[in-house]
Structure formats: structure tokens, C-alpha cells
Amino acid sequence: MKRFSKYFGDKAFYKMALAIIIPVVIQQLILNLAGLIDTFMINGFSQTAYTGVSTANRFMFIINFFWIGLAAGISVFVSQYFGAKNKKGIIGTFQLGILLAIVFGIISTFLINVLGPEMIKMFLPTTDPEQVESVMFGIEYIKIIGYGAIVFLSSFMIATFFRSVGRPKAPLIAGVIGIIINMSLNMVLIYGFLGVPAMGAMGAAWATVLSKVAELIVLIVIAFFYSNENYAREIFKKYLITKRLVITYISKGGPIIINEILWSIAMVLYAMFITSGIYEWVTAYGYSQNATDIFFVYYSGMATATGVILGQALGEGDFENAKDYLIKLRAVMMVTNIGIMVLIVLLSPIILLMFTPVNSLYWLAYQLILINVIFITIYGYNVMSYYALRAGGDSIRTFLLDQLPTYLVGLPIVMLLSHYRVELGVNILIIFLASKSTDVVKLIFARHIIKKGTWLNNLTLDEVKIKTA
Hints:
The chain is an all-alpha fold and 469 residues long. The chain contains 16 helices and no strands. The protein has helices spanning 11-45, 47-83, 87-123, 129-147, 149-164, 169-191, 201-225, 231-234, 243-275, 279-315, 319-352, 360-391, 395-419, 421-424, 428-435, 437-452. The longest helix has 37 residues, at 47-83. The protein is globular.
């Protein structure tokens, strides 16, 4: 038993870890359930509207990960400064995060309105009237979403800050309120209630934007009036963004941002080539993703907890504890992963019924889900490895680990299979299975890089990199 004792923590460890994991998982679960209900409502309004909106969200997927990259860079520093009990560093990083949210929120609005419609047209070639209608719905939706970019990014940045200082309940409260408002407005604006005309995809977009405004207001209120640390009030008293912080953020956060953008682009390209522009494949793939996203929130919670817990330990200069925490967090993921797999297999058939009756699309979507289940443990291991590397600012190796297998292994295989699908007699299931080769390659390299310990860095010190004996 001593051999396995390193994988199990004491009561204090699990209390600390679960205090971060549970609120994040609950928030993400509620958010994904609300997104599922949104999709269900749009699908109920019109399947062509659903296809248009889901296609529009593929471009928003790229933008969202651009925002995640911006916030992840901020999170790395806030977590470490919090661990080092460096209040000036925390406030300076918070100021930088808000500044980035405003600047890149404006840039995002421009990108969404200019590039978004072109991306939708690329995914849905206008070869038949049904696709033409879907394109129109998608463009209506994405242009409205673009107006809320600053709000979305600001809300995301503040929520990330709260989690990084060990207060995940604040974004949970704001998220729940925003989701309730979103679902209520969806009923009114999509279908037309209370004297409001039915707006379809446009109604769904406005509901999303207005709910995010409400979420941001709640976060600001909590930050200013219900926070013992008073970080929010401090950001207006003195300018604390230092030259070193900006340079270090660019050097450590820059690769994270680029990595998130390239990864999201790769996922969009995967979806494009896996579905090969075939309408039935596009729809079934969308259904499968909607059904599995609910369960993948667990890995989001585990990854977030990994980044925050390890970041705080590294900020304290406690490298041995950081290594120990990672081993124990991985053990938690591996054990609980069995339950997640069982839930996906049992519940996804019920979730699919929200979108389609039991027909060929239904069974195709379920088969795609089962392929996901086979590789989900590898996905969980990999994503925790990324967040461990990020916590220590080892963003270059994170970038290489994520991108090289994606662009040199997975994508070329999927592109070839898609291009020669008729000659080879392969369908979407074979292409999707082949895409998972990326995760297997990442697993091999992740194990090697983590063991090297290059992520064990204290970024709060003037000497950015500290090597352990």
C-alpha cells in the first residue's frame, strides 16, 4: 500500500482542492446545461436556425479561446502572487487584466463582425435553399454577439481573477444569475412571449448578450462591496502595472494566447474535415458535441483547480508540494473518471432525444459519443498536464506539446481521410476515430515533460526561473 500512498491526500488537501473544483464544475455544468437548453430552444424554433447558430458558434469558439488565453496568462501571475502574499503584484496584474479586456474587447468586436460571416459561409456552402437559410440565421446571430465582446471578456477576466485568489463562489453566483436571465429571455425573445415578436436566432443572441451584462454587474458588485481583500477598490488608487510585469506577461502569456488561438482553429478545422461539409454529418457531429460538453465540464474544473493550486504553491516557493499536489490531483481525476464515463454512456442517449428522434442521425451522434468516451481519460490527463505547465510559466513547452501533435499528426490524417473518403470508403466515424491519434501522441510527450520539472518556477521573484536540486 505504501507504493500507492503518494496518490492519496489527507483531509486538508481534499478540502482545499474541492473548494475550488466543486464551484467551478457546478458553474460550468449550469452554463453547459443552459447552453444545451438554448440549443434545444433554437432547434425547436427551426433546425436550420440551429445549424446556423451552431456554425456561428464555431467561430465564437476561436474567439472564446483567444479570451481564455488572455485570462490564463493573468491567472498564472495572480495565482503565484496570491501564494507569495504579494498584494501589489495581485493589484497590478488585475489592472493589466482589465486593460486587456477593454482593448481586446474592442478588437474582438471588429473581428467577429468582419470575419464571422465569412467563416459561416465557409462551413455552410450555399448549395441548397436550406443551407442558405442556415447561413442567414448564423450571420444574424453572430453580429449581435459581437456587440457584447467587451462585456464577455471583462466578465471572463474578473471571474478568472476571483478563481485565482481562491474565491470561485463569486463567479458561480454571477454565472447562475446570468444563466437564469438568459433562459428567461430566450423564452421571450426566441419564441415571442409577453407581446414581444418571435426573433429566433436574433432573440437567442440578444438573450446571451443581456445575460452577460447582468453577470458582469453582479461580479463588479461582489468585487467592490462583498470582498474582504478590497482588490477592486485598490485598482483605482495607484497605477501598479510595472514594466517587468508587462514584459513577463508577454513572454509567458504570449505563447499561451497563441496556443489557445491555434488550438481552437485546429478544433474548427477538425470539425470541418471530420464532417466533410455533409449536412447530416455536420448535424450529427453538433448533436454529439452538445451532449458530451455537459460532462467535459468536470475536466474543466479539474484543470482550473490544478492551475490555481499549483500556482499558489509555486508562488510560495514550495516546489515539492507542487509536485505532490499534481500527483494527487491526477489520482482524483483518474478515479472519478470512471463515473464520468458511465454517466456519458447512460445519459447521452436521453440528452440526444432533446434534439432528434431515434433515427439515423440519433445513432450516428451516439456512436461519435462512444468514441469520445474511449479517449476521455487521456484527454483529462493531458489537460491537467497543460495547466501544470502553465502554472509555472512553462508556456513554450505547453505550446509545443499542444500544437506539434495537432498540426503534424492529427490534422494531416483527418484531412487525407476526408479528401479521399469516397475512394477509401470511410465515414465520419472512422475519420473521428483517427482524429484521436493526436491525444495519444500528446499523452506520451506530456508524461516526459512533466517528469523533467521545467514547470517548477516561481514567477514572483526577480529571478524568473529557479531550478530545483
